[in-house]
Amino acid sequence: MSASTGGPNEEASTDPAGTPVGREPNRLSVAYPGGLAARYRWAGTFGAAELFAISEASGSLTDHGPLVSAEPDRLCRAELRVEGPLGAWTARFASPIFDEPRGVLWDTAGLLVVGYGFVVYALNARTGELRWSHASGTPLVALLGSSRLAHVIAQREVETVAIGGDGAVTWRIAHSDVVTEAQLVGGRLILTSFAGQHQSIDAHSGQAVG
Length: 210
Hints:
single chain, mainly beta, six-stranded mixed beta sheet, 2% helix
């Protein structure tokens, strides 16, 4: 996977909570296997109008913001544009916190799994159709997947959740300390806590290792 990103606007302002507002949209381009070219754009609170003003018109467009709020444009917003062999599609997301969207192509399930804010979305990689979504009460730290796993792993601040191709939770682990980093290494999930402690988990079963 290759990616390139444009830098954020250094003159962006923030609201009283520190959330960026009225800033130039951030951008990230990703080339996924199978000829899928994805472009992510995202902005802070009340940045929807500026973000969506330059949306590309061709292909399907689905707004998943209402899954998060009845007024999603009052929140932070993100847009994903995908172009591939079967055409183009666009998906929009909303988050109550400023976040960078992240995606994992789960080729064996035919899904592009996207994490933004508190929600993970599983989209048909070719058409953009929403297969399932999974929400939690804590922000996403990392979204991890591998063709050798029968699930994707949504690492949140205080829990690890493995989600199968049908959207069902395969296993779940709660943590007593906030997780700040997660990596897949040789079939193991390596977690680093806010206190600097490391934990190794079997990525298949969710069982602690060592």
